[in-house]
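#struct-help
A.M.: can someone run this one for me? Single chain, 156 residues.
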Amino acid sequence: MKEKFKQRLDENKFVDLANCRNTSQQEKYLEIYKKNYDPFGERSKIEDLGNEIISDTDYWIVIRNQHYKDPKRKHHFVVILKRFIKTTEELRSEEILDAFKTLSEINLRFQICGGALLMRYGDTRLSGASVKHLHFHIVEPSSNEAIPLYVGCKID
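D.P.: on it. Structure tokens below:
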């Protein structure tokens, strides 16, 4: 079994190294993996990764995604639930309501006219998430050109 796949199956960890998007993210997340902590677990840990916090509600923290430096993306935000869960079934109704309120506020604040909303949850082999903490992405392209949003993973 490949080492990346072994790491992926370790349910005691908070990150999936096989789904890191670039070398910089891999290096940061390897340290997190070794220390076994949730990088989305506290505001300070989110900031320690170099993330700019855009919004902070009762249930969600919104950051500008630092791992995608793509000129085809006008905006790319990650919306992180403040408590650790992995599945949508664990979401409370007030968290769901606040998530969509937060989405609307981000759309208005950054004048986002259209884009994609992608939630990462559950089995990271299927979701493609590098962090196992439920979160979602708000992505607005910078033009009419298609941009990739990865779901699932590739085992090298």
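A.M.: thanks! The CA atoms of residues 32 and 81 lie 19 Å apart.
D.P.: also worth noting: The radius of gyration is 15 Å.
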